[in-house]
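Contributing: when you submit paired examples, paste them exactly as shown. First protein:
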Amino acid sequence: MASKSNVYAGVAGYVGRADQKGTVGVFTRPAETGRWEHVLADHEAYTVNVHPTDPNVVFAGTADGVYRSTDRGKTFRRTNFPDKVQIWSFLVDANDRKLIYAGGSPISMYRSEDTGETWHKLPDPGMPDRAVMPFACRVMRLAQHPSHPGTIFAALEVNGVMRTTDGGESWSDCSSGLIELAQKPHLKSKIVSDTYNEGMLDGHAIAISPADPDKVIVAVRMGLFETADGGKTWQDMELGRFSPTTYGRDIKVSPADGKTLYTALSVAAASKDGAVYRSTDNGTTWKRFDKVQVHGTIMSVALHNTDPNQVFIGARYDGEIYGTEDGGATWDSLPLPSDVKDIYSVAVG
C-alpha cells in the first residue's frame, strides 16, 4: 500500500500478561517508505495524536508523560511535563490550536498553552472511586463541545464520565445515569471488581458531533450510550439492532462531515474478533464499514484530519493494522513487526 499519509501506532505490553515482554512504544510508517520504524522504544504508549492543523506535530501519551514529535514522527522527545504518570488521551482545542489537554492515570488532567512544549497539572477532578480494578482509573478520551470550548467531557476507565465547563479547572460527575442503567439485568457486568455497575462505568471513548452539539455519545463495555442533557441522563443506542457485537472501544466523528461517525465494536476486551461500523446520520443507524477479519479486539479507529477517505484501524495482540484510502472500498494490511504486543492507538496524518 503506497500510503498518502504517515501512520502511527501506540503500543503497550502487559494487558494481563506481564510475563510476556513484547516490544512497546511508538511506531511510525512514513508515507514515502511504507515501512514501520520503531521511533520511541523506552516506554509503553497508550495514545498517539496528530495535531489537526499541523501534521508535523504528533503527540504520544506514554508511561512517562507526554512525548512529542515536531518532524512528522521521525523523532520523539519528552516534553516539559511535570510528572511521571501514564497519559491516555489528548484533545487539541478547536479554537486555540496551541491549547492542548491531556488525560492521565490515575485520574488527572494536564494542559499546555504552547502546542505541547510545556505542561501544567490542573486541579484534581475529585471523582469518587466506584469500581476497584487491578489498574488505576484512566482518562481514556476527551470530547469538546463545538459551541462552548470550555465544556469538555471525559470517558473514564473504569469510572463513567466527567465534565468540565471551565476548561478543566473543575469537574462534575456525569455517571449517575449510567449507574441507573446498570441496574437493568442485560446491562450488568462484573469481571474483576466488586460491583455489577462495572460494565456501564467501563468508559473507553466519547464523542460530540457538530451536527448535534448537545448530544454526547460514550462507548462503554455494554455498548454506545447517549445524553442530551449534559450527562444527567443516558439512553441506550441499542447497537444490537445493527451489530452482533456491542463492546464499544472507540468512537470518532468525521472531521469532514459531522453526521458521519465511526465506532469500533468487538466481543470483549480480550477477544479474537471485531468490526468497525459507520453511521451517516449521527448515530441513528449503523452499517459495517470495514472489509477485514481481525484476530483481536479493535482498540482504535484513526481518521485523517482533512481526507475523509483515509481510515485506519488497529487490533490488539498480533500487531494488526488495516487501512483504506478510498472510503472503505478496498483495504490493505499493514502489520507491525511480529514481536509487537498490544496496540492501543492508531493515528494518521
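Second protein:
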Amino acid sequence: MNSTALNRLRSSVRGSVLASGDDGYDAARRIYNAAIDRRPAVIVRCAGAADVLRAIAFAREENLLASIRGGGHNVAGKAVVDGGVMIDLSTMRSVRVDPAARRVRAEAGATLRDLDHETQAFGMATPMGTVSATGIAGLTLGGGLGHLMRKYGLACDNLASADVITADGRRVHASPEENDDLFWGLRGGGGNFGVVTSFEYRLFEIGTMVGGLILHPIDRARALLRFHRETMASAPDELSALAAMLYSPDGQPVCAQFPACVGPVAQGEKLVAPLKKFGPPLADMAGPIAYCDLQKTLDGGFPSGLSNYWTANFVRELSDEVIEILAEGFARAPNALSAVVIEEFGGAVKRVGPEDTAVPLRDGQYNVVLIARWSDPGHADPCIGWARGLYRALGPHFISAAYINYLPEELDGTLATVYGAHRYRRLSELKRKYDPDNFFRMNQNIRPAG
C-alpha cells in the first residue's frame, strides 16, 4: 500500500484506518468463521456515513476490490477481502427507538443483541435472527429468519426504510415511497447494490415468551422429526419451532426441538405442552423466558473461533425419506461440533407475495441446514466432505430456492437458479442501475445485466 495514499486516507476519516502491522489489524480482520484467513490491504473502521463514502472513493482511486463487514457472522466470509479495502461498519452500532411510532433505526454495525437490548427497554422487538452476536445488516439484506417470523414475517418483511451509499458515492434513501426499486432489491438481494448505513424497522409488542430447548436421546431422532412435522403442520402463527440433531455440551449426540411462542405466557404454555409430552425428554428447558434471554439461548452452541462450513437448501416437506437421510447422515458426523438444523418457514412468511420482496424462499417449507465445524485445520477435509456428501444425498428432495445467507462459497454460480429466472433478471437490471461496474462483488454476487 502506497504510504502517501494511506496517510491521506487516515487524515480524511473520523474512524480508524488499519494496515498490516498496525495494532488491532489482526483482530479487525477476524470474523466469526475462523476458516477465513484473509489479509486486506487496508481496513477502514468507519465512524459514520462520511467514512463509508471516503472508503469507497479510496478503493476506486487505488483500483482495489472492496468488501463490507457488518457483524462479520456470515460463514462464507465475504466480509473480508485479500489485498483490498475492507469497509468495516462494526463500530457503527447506534440504535434509536421511537416507541410512539413503533419504529427503530439502527446503524449497520449493530448486532441482534444491540437491537434487542434497546427495543426491549420499551417492551418491543422486530423479527431478527436466533443468535445474538449476528449482525443485523447481512441478516436483513439476505431475508432474516428468527423466532418471531411465523407471527410477523422475516426481518426484511419489516424493514421500513434504509439509507444506502452507492458505488458512485450517492447517498440514497430507499423506502416504499422513495427509490422503491432499490427498496425491493435490498429485501433479499444481499449487499449487491451499495453499503446500507442504517436500517429502519417496524416494531411489535413482545414481552415474556415461552420457549427453550427440549432435548431427547438421539435414538428418537426419526420419531421426533415426524412429530415435529405433524406439530408444525397445524401450528398457529404464534408458535415457531426449530428441530435439530446436535451434540450436548458433554459430547453426547441428541435431537431437539426449540419452540418459541409469541403472546401471553398462559397461551404459550398451552402451545408448548404437547411438545413437552413427547418423550420423556432428556432435558426440558422450555418455559417462560425474557425475549433477550431467548435470543441468547443458542449463543453457546455457535461460538466464534471455530472453522465453519455450512450448506443448506429447502425441501417442500419433511418426508419420511428426508428424515431417514438426515438421521443416517448425522450418525456419520465426523465430530461433536457437527449439527443438522431444520427451520420451518410458515405462517406470516408464506403470506408475503412471491414478488413483493427479492427473497427466493417463499415456496419452501423446511430449510435444512448442515453445519460442519472443526478446531484443528487438519480436520477440514472430513468435516466439509461430510456436509457436502449429506447435501448430495438430499439433492433429489431440494427445491430450487435457497436462503442466500447460508450459501457457501462454491454455490455462487447458482444464484440465477436460486432466485429464479424472472427475479434474477429483475435483480440484475437493478444491479446495472445502481452498480453497473459490479464494484460490490464480495457477496453472493448478482452480475449487472449486459
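If you have annotations for the second protein, write them as plain sentences, like these:
The radius of gyration is 21 Å.
The longest helix spans residues 380-394.
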